Amino acid sequence: MAVVKHTNADIELLARLLRAEAEGEGNQGMLLVGNVGINRIRANCSDFKGLRTIREMIYQPKAFEATTKGYFYQRARENEKNLARRAIRGERSWPAKFSLWYFRPGGNCPPTWYNQPLVGRFKLHCFYQPTAKECENIYNTFA
Q1: Buried b / exposed e across 50-89, counting CB within 10 Å, b at 16+?
Q2: How far apart are CA 59 and CA 92, in angstroms?
């Protein structure tokens, strides 16, 4: 069962984002990017208040570098579509389980990003999640 409403076009969009943002980090890295995106829709807090659709999440201004560069405009392959479906169904993994942010620094992960604590690193990406006080929904709206 899906945790966010979606269409086939949404699956395609999310799959393209996964490929553009984390193809070099393998299936797990791409799934983690999907986790963050779906978290942003479901959380309705912080910088992500009012996001209700996959399209709104992906095209939120300055949310994903890939949408402003050519990488995002590669076609989605079946593998990425399957990963997108898994994220949409609510499959989540550490360190993105409750994360709303990730980025790829040139070196070590900073201890905070947008005032949020570091929860972990997967290959080259650092993941950050909000506190329960700031963003309660991220912790109680998911299976």
Answers
A1: ebeebeebbebeebbebbeeebbeeebeeebbebbbbbbe
A2: 22
- Provide the pLDDT confidence category of residue 5 given band limits of 50, 70 and 90: very high
Is there a contact between 91 and 39 (Cβ–Cβ < 8 Å)?
Answer: no
Full strand arrangement of the beta sheet holding 116-122: 101-103, 125-128, 116-122, 112-113
pTM above the 0.70 mark?
yes
Is residue 76 within 8 A of residue 82, CB to CB? The reply is: no
* Among 1, 63, 44, 45, residue whose Cα is nearest residue 14: 63
Contact 30, 86 (CB under 8 A): no
pLDDT in tens, 59-110: 999 899 888 877 788 899 999 999 999 999 999 999 999 999 999 999 999 9
pLDDT per residue over 10-37, tens digit each? 999 999 999 999 999 999 999 999 999 9
Q: What is the DSSP letter of 68?
A: G
Q: How does strand 101-103 pair with strand 112-113?
A: unpaired
Distance CA 10, CA 15 (A): 8
